[in-house]
Amino acid sequence: MRFKIFFSRFVPYLLLIVVTLPIIIGYVWILISTFSTRTYGLLPVDKAGRPGGWTLSNWSFLSKPEIWMVTSNTFILASGLTIGVVVVSMMAGYALSRIKFPGRKAFLSLTLILHAFPTVTLLIAIYFVLRWISVIPVLGRGLPIIGGFGYNTLGGVILVSLALQLPLGIWLMKGFFDNVSWDMERAALIDGCSRFRTWREVMVPQIRPGIAALSIFSFIQGWGSFIIPYSYMVNANRATIATYLNNLLSETAPTNYSMVAAVGLFQLLPVLVFYIFTQKYLLSIFAGGVKGAA
Amino acid sequence: MTEKTTGGGGKYDWFWFLLPALILVVIFFFLPIIITFFISGTNMSTATGFQNWKWIGLKNYQRISSHPETLEHLWLTVKYVAFTLVFFNLGMSLVIALLTTHISRGVGFLFRAVWLLPRITPVVVYVMMWRFIAADAPYGILNQIIIKPLGLKTANWLPMAPFLFIVLVNGFIGASFGMILFSSAIESIPKDLMMASLVDGSSYLQRIRYLIIPHLRWPLLFVTTFQTLSLMTSFEQILVLTDGAYNTEVWALWAYHKALSTYSGNLQWGFGTALAAILVTIGIVMAVIYMRYFKFEELVQEPKIETQ
């Protein structure tokens, strides 16, 4: 009997720890490695292989102008994506949740189908779309900061990421609008408030948790996104932190991984901070079904 | 009809609210789907450019069916999807869901939070961790912690066991999807039912077999179909991990390389889009099937406000 209690008490923990170990080890390694000359496994060592060798020199990449360029690009990408997804999804989600119009059902089922559709299969064709957008004057490649919306511009990368994220965003926002009471909206409309003003001043403030969840999720997605900037920016290693890091990774031997690990931690930190403080919000999205990375 | 009966709204408001989404969906979903099928019927490549290509009908598809590498990529893709799905997206996620709902709530939640980390971590950083785990002695973690103490021969394990690593790398991300769905389904089983089964003398394993698994039938089916599609089409992690080296070029990555990889001299857009068109077709068919399973009618309530 005592054995049975022991069994049911501790075995689950033990099993969990064992299967979770590879993940934990990965993050522990990145922390240790970042602050040491090099590592043998998880053990920090100096150049001769003796234990020790703690150093801050891996962070010297912070003084390179490159890293700040890719960081600002990544930040623009993540913020642009977030603002775009949230605004467009809130508009479409509102219409789908609250207005009766011909084709509403069709549009709703389309959103669902697109949500289930594996968007990554369209990457090749989107390359051609971006090439065409490039030809459009000004809009193609003549805008400040984001460069335009065509091929090899930051704006193009933002636009593609935004579009591919829309089905999830619209579906999520529709769900949040569905749960808002009808009374206030009806009152506003009867008082002669326009649809747009009702949306902006009465409805949007009521779904703040939904907006927070979608914003955080989109920002994290944009901040870590790799395949879209990698595919559509010509000089990929100067595009975003992810592509810059990928380039470093492919040309660095394990001997010098500590330096690469520091760049990785640099990219990882904001994500971890968001994650630790906003898990509750994020779970609502993951529970709604995220695809992509298998 | 033109008179407003309840004030503020205009007749075509819905159109303006939907317009931005509509434009984006047309440009980045509809148009690419059409382009995929269209270009797959041409011989377009960097050699022909955008001007001198010719319509060649189904030739690209014939080329796929007779290509010496086709079976290789297909078999690898099937193997990769099957192993990742069975051992991680279903197997591991079920194990974690069962274990974390069995122990105390707080600790269970903590473990689930850790399992979500790989999904939320930027993909290049995540793959970097795995590359270091696999790296050669004396650096790599696997060599230092397991291989060496056991006195076995050390190696760089990525080229030694590439298939294992693409399954592991994707599996540790994929497991969290099922984990979330399964654990919330298990937590929704009435507590008295769970207690009753143990009081009645069934063991934990029996409870899993006869109470929990039947309860999970629906989420299991959903995860299986949804994740099969995801695994079949996603290639980002493999691209970063091996870029298709050591025989790890799955179908989706093959298409991507043929059409967009800057390393090969001539980009074969026609052939590449034909490879992708097969995945797009599967994607559309399966997406439509899911929509039917989603119990769609229940989700679509009619709005209560009418402004016309």
List its salient traits.
heterodimer, A: 294 residues, mainly alpha, MetI-like fold, two-stranded antiparallel ribbon, 2% strand, globular, B: 308 residues, 15 helices, disordered N terminus
Can you give a write-up of this model?
The complex is a heterodimer of chains A (294) and B (308). Chain A is an all-alpha fold and 294 residues long. Chain A has a single domain (71-287), classed as Orthogonal Bundle (MetI-like fold). Chain A has 11 helices and 2 strands, in the order H-E-E-H-H-H-H-H-H-H-H-H-H. Chain A has a two-stranded antiparallel sheet. In chain A, helix 5 (154-178) runs antiparallel to helix 8 and helix 10 (241-251) packs across helix 11 (257-287). The longest helix of chain A has 34 residues, at 65-98. Chain A is globular and about 75 Å long.
Number of helices of chain A: 11
- Provide the domain count of chain B: 2
Specify the overall morphology of chain B: globular
Distance between the termini of chain A: 43 Å
Strand runs of chain B, count: 0
Total beta strands of chain A: 2
Radius of gyration of chain B: 25 Å
- CATH topology of chain A: the name is MetI-like fold
